[in-house]
Amino acid sequence: MPTAAIRLALRLSLSDKALVTHAANVQGVPVSVFMRNAVLREAERVIAAPQVVPNGSTRR
Q: What value, to the nearest 5°, has the Cα angle with vertex 7 and ends 46 and 2?
């Protein structure tokens, strides 16, 4: 069974889009693939990092 996909949209300045496009070209991948990889990598980093809670302790 194929996996359903959803579409996300975001707004970028022209300079940000140029930067992302250049980076995707350097890696030889489409912008959408570059963006997906970057977003998933960052999401995993955030989830794995210790989180500071209001009382000053940390949790994982």
A: 95
